[in-house]
Amino acid sequence: MKIMKFGGTSVGTPERMRSVVPLINTGEKVIVVLSAMSGTTNALIEISASLNAGNTTDASSKIEALRSKYHDVVNGLYGSDSIKKTGIQIVDSHLDYISGFINGAFTRTQEKAIIAQGELLSTSLFQLLLEEKNIRSVLIPALNFMRIDKYGEPDLYYITENLKRELENYTDTNIFVTQGFICRNAFGEIDNLKRGGSDYTASLIGAALDASEIQIWTDINGFHNNDPRFVEKTVPVRELSFDEAAELAYFGAKILHPSTVNPAREKNIPVRLKNTMDPDDPGTMISRKYTLKDYKAVAAKDGIIIIRIKSDRMLMAYGFLRKIFEIFEVYRTPIDMITTSEVSVALTIDNPEHLTQIVKELQDLGTVEVEENMSIVCIVGDFRPERTGSAPEIFEALNTLPIKMIAYGGSPYNLSLLIDTKDKVKALRLLNKHLFPEINDN
User: 219 to each of 23, 204, 277, 435, how far by Cα in Å?
Assistant: First the structure.
């Protein structure tokens, strides 16, 4: 069985939604994971914000604007008047559900239930499209089997048992449609896997079923060697190892959700990144295979905060780092990069939610400095420690920019640098020129 996930742009218009049908209707057994149509999640977040602020007039206006948009989608998606009528009823039922919150108390739980309507809508409309085309398929609700625990982590045992129970009811069906992103939490409430979580859903489903392949369909031909939003000359990277892909995804490559790699890696399930608008392109294959190359790709992650802790108590002492890490553990705040000297530690985080409390506790250990508006630039390539001269081009490229931190040696496939965000685009372009001269010469 294959898992095929289609992102918001891949189902963002009636034309694009129709173009997905031949990709999944090949006679193979597949589970199709859909995101909300592009723009829908943002619209639902805005509606929730208006409700949270008590601005019911604005919320009502936004709901009706979204209803109008989806009515247009329905009229453009289906051919039959009777199917169009059913589509309008589907849309209205979901939008009426959201409208029901206008005059009631609004909570965080209800916000997540509202945001979930995007995926519930896209899958219901897509399933109806398959029915109009007389393609045998079944819509299986993700809320019946996707669950996270009290820490927000997926409960893979629960997912596996309940997903298999769902599929056992349809042994003669090849196409299953389900929602990405949404789930239930440990209390049974509607929740989600956070933004970009549809990729994660696909990977978790693949791991639960020992799928033959997980396909992530987007609007670009796989991982590129640099960020095409900022760099003119980029090319697809055709093969990446799980480790290399994880580094790129975590450090800013937008094509793949950072959590996607782990479930697939643990079950050794290849992940293929494909372009819905160019389905014949091979995309990028992610597997256990390593193809050694000096430099493969560059990615950048914004919103980074650097925290420096200086203390003479570190000198010749043990247990000091443990005390630092315990503070971040208490506030469940991951650390991205870390460097140390005899009397100081510098580390980075990307979640400012508990920054004030963390800094206050760190000040009991020493002098603390904080800098915001930083970016991590990640270079993936062959950085094995036994090699010599493996990274001179990186520092030649960036010799005009201030580098705040360097992380090297923790992974044989990654070198990371911390720079000011204002220098990020220049850094990406300089690295593209120096690390991939064969591309720039063409």
Answer: 14, 22, 6, 26
* HSE (side-chain half, CA atoms, 13 Å) at 295: 26
Pairing type for strands 414-420 and 295-310 reads unpaired
Domain 296-440, CATH homologous superfamily name and number: VC0802-like (3.30.2130.10)
Question: Can you tell me the distance from the alpha carbon of 321 to that of 331, in angstroms, rounded to the nearest whole number?
Answer: 16
For 2-219, CATH number out of 3.40.1160.10, 3.40.50.720, 1.20.120.530, 3.30.390.30 equals: 3.40.1160.10
Q: Are 236 and 224 in contact (CB under 8 A)?
A: yes
Q: Please state the pTM of the whole predicted model.
A: 0.88
The answer to whether the CB of 177 falls within 8 A of the CB of 137 is yes
Q: Angle 222-225-227 (CA atoms, 0-180°, nearest 5)?
A: 85
Give the integer Cα–Cα distance in Å for 158 and 338. Answer: 35
Cβ partners under 8 Å of residue 158, min gap 6: 145, 147
Q: CA Rg, the chain, in Å?
A: 24
**Any idea what DSSP says for residue 334?**
-
- CATH 3.40.1160.10 positions along the chain are 2-219
**Would you list the DSSP string of 13-34?**
SHHHHHHHHHHH-SSS-EEEEE
Q: What is the pLDDT of residues 272-316, one digit of tens each?
A: 999 999 999 999 999 998 887 889 999 999 999 999 999 887 665
Tokens of 212: 């033959």
Listed in sequence order, the residues at least 6 apart from 107 whose beta carbon sits closer than 8 Å to its beta carbon are: none
Read off the pLDDT of residues 223-258 as tens digits, 9 standing for 90 and up. Answer: 999 999 999 989 999 999 999 998 888 887 677 887
C-alpha distances (whole Å) from 221 to each of 4, 41, 272 are 15, 24, 10
- For the record, the structure tokens of 46 come out as 């805005």
Q: Which of 193, 177, 183 is nearest to 257 (CA)?
A: 193
Coil, strand or helix at 49: helix
Positions of CATH 3.30.2130.10 in the chain: 296-440
Which residue type sits at 392? P
- Does position 9 have pLDDT exceeding 80, yes or no? yes
Write down the pLDDT at residue 389: 61
CA end-to-end span of the chain, whole Å? 41
* Percent share of the chain, pLDDT over 90: 79
The DSSP code for 366 is: S
298: left (phi over 0), alpha (psi -120 to 50) or beta: beta
Question: For the segment 85-120, what is each residue's pLDDT rounded down to a tens digit?
Answer: 999 999 999 999 999 998 877 777 899 999 999 999
What is the rounded distance in angstroms from the CA atom of residue 297 to the CA atom of residue 227?
Answer: 9
